[in-house]
Amino acid sequence: MKKAIITDHGFPHIDLEREIIESAGFELDFIQPICKSEDDIISTCGQADALLVQWAPVTRRVLEALPNVRCIVRYGVGVNNFDLDAARDLGVVAANVPDFCVDEVANHALAMILSLCRRIPQDHQQILQGGWGVNPFRPIHALTDLALGLVSFGKIARNLARKASALGFSIIACDPYVDDSIFAECQAKRVESDELIEQADIVSLHCPLLPETTHLMDSRAFGRMKPGAILINTSRGPVVDEPALVEALRAGRLGGAGLDVFEEEPLPPGSPLRTFPNVILTSHAASVSEKAVELLQRKAAEAARDFLLGKDPVSRLV
Predict the structure, then answer these.
(1) What is the largest CA-CA distance in the chain?
(2) Topology alike, domains 3-100+290-308 and 102-281
(3) pLDDT for 73-116, tens place per residue?
(4) CATH homologous superfamily for 3-100+290-308?
(5) For domain 102-281, which architecture applies?
(6) Lower CB density within 10 Å: C or N end of the chain?
(7) Would you please indicate which residues are annotated as catalytic (active-site) residues?
(8) pLDDT tens, residue by residue, 216-263
(9) Paired residues of 114 in beta bridges
(10) Can you give the pLDDT at residue 232?
(11) CA 306/CA 175 separation, integer angstroms
């Protein structure tokens, strides 16, 4: 009997996956304790025809050591933990869940933007410490006077653009891979990345983690942002050079930051990012809603099932 194995996950249960895969006549196993390394996957998943993976690294070494594995499915949109070149070279099907959490991440970013623009975290902390009055946190600009800059203009950024436009933000965006017609449809002004960093009152990151986007936001970028500008990151932690961000916050060059992702997760206890009243920290939670997580589990399981049935997964990448 063909078998799918779940290498790792953070869900309360895997009942959906079991129902979808086993009702199609296949076997499903879940590795416990979860796989965290290449060696974990190699030592436990040799009998799998397909792997469902959340965070575990599926590298060339893993795929070469597991010739029985012919399909890998990522619980999520990004595939930074998959070596897609190796999968292509070895004839392994790779798939993801491309429509996962579009609304959720856009809403999370917007919540951070509104909170920081309205100085809610600072006022909250002040009141807890016995203070009162908003004057220490001014200027507070009207939303209609602010430009929201979106770095990358995929589904999540476009969703955010529509919602932010309704609140009065002007939208600028950069993405070399998106057609002009999409910018026009979303009423977003297309700019180059350098222009965006210099012109935006809020810079919101939505780009994938690639060599060219690693530490995209570094000391040079922070130095070019408007005084008092806000940074939002709901994409991938390493897009931001965290020591450079800390330096910019300490120097008072930024008005604040909203961070859902970090270079190291969980965020280390000693991180200076924990110390700023104008920084919102969330625990890689932007993607979560009950509806979104159910869709994620269902779509990932369906992709694995379809492969086991001899079909191409709808979300096949390679």
Answers:
(1) 68
(2) yes
(3) 999 999 999 999 999 999 999 999 999 999 999 999 999 999 99
(4) NAD(P)-binding Rossmann-like Domain (3.40.50.720)
(5) 3-Layer(aba) Sandwich (3.40)
(6) N
(7) 236, 265, 284
(8) 999 999 999 999 999 999 999 999 999 999 999 999 999 999 999 999
(9) none
(10) 99
(11) 33
